[in-house]
C-alpha cells in the first residue's frame, strides 16, 4: 500500500523557496562542496526525502558530486545535519586510521576518501519549477525520482513529477547517455511515468535485464526510508530506467 501524504507535506508544495539562483552561473556551490571547488554536480535526487540514497551512493562514487533537492524545510535541515555529522565522523575515523591501521599498509575505506561525504549535499528547492536555475545543459549524468507523490486524484495529475513539460527540462539538464531512475510502490503511477517517458522522444527505456545489473538499482529500491517502509510492509516496487538519447544536430545548434 502506498502511504498517504501528510497535510504538512502537501502544504510544503506551496511554500516559497529561498535562495534559488537566477541562473546556474549565479549558484555558489562552495558551502555545499568546500573540498570540490572545480567540480560540478552530476547526480540529482529530486525529492530526496531523508537522504538515504545520497548517503548510500556517496562512498560508491567519491569523485562525483551529488545533490538532493527537497522542498520541505525540516526534512532539508535534517539531511543537512545528517551530512554534516557523517563528514565529521569520517574526519575522526580518518585520523584514527592514519594513526593506527595505515602503518600496516591497510587500504583506506571509500567512505574515508578525502574526508568522506564531501561529495554530497542538499538544497531546499522546488525542482518542478527551478531545476534549470541550478543546472546547465548536459550537466547531469543521473536523475532520480524515487517514490514520488502519486497525486491520486485526476485533477492533481498535472502536479506529478513526470509530465511532458517537465520531461523537456530533465532532457535539457541530462547529458546524452545519462540515466533517469524511477521507482514507486504505486503501479498506476509507474505506468504513468513509463508511458510519458516512452512517449518523449529524448528518452529510451533501458531493458529490464540491463537495469537490474546497474550497480545503483539495489539502492534506489532499498536505501530510502520509503523503500524500507515498503519492504517492511511486504509491498511491491516498480522500477524503470531510461537513457537520454544523443541530441540531434539541430538540437545542439
Structure notes:
- The structure is a single chain.
- It contains ten helices and seven strands.
- It is α/β, with parallel strands linked by helices and 253 residues long.
- The chain has one domain: Rossmann fold (3-Layer(aba) Sandwich).
- The protein has a seven-stranded mixed sheet with strand order 3-2-1-4-5-7-6, with helices on both faces.
Short overview:
This protein has 253 residues and is an alpha/beta fold. It has helices at 7-12, 52-57, 73-99, 127-134, 164-173, 187-199, 208-213, 217-222, 225-232, 249-252, and strands at residues 41-46, 65-70, 120-124, 140-146, 174-184, 203-205, 238-244. It is built from 10 helices and 7 strands.
Could you tell me the CATH topology label: Rossmann fold
Q: How many runs of DSSP E, i.e. beta strands? A: 7
The overall pLDDT average reads 87
User: Largest beta sheet: what is the strand line-up?
Assistant: 3-2-1-4-5-7-6
How would you classify the helix and strand content by structural class? alpha/beta
**CATH architectural grouping:** 3-Layer(aba) Sandwich
Determine and state the CATH class.
Alpha Beta
Distance between the termini: 47 Å
Shape: globular
Percent of sequence in beta strands: 15-25%
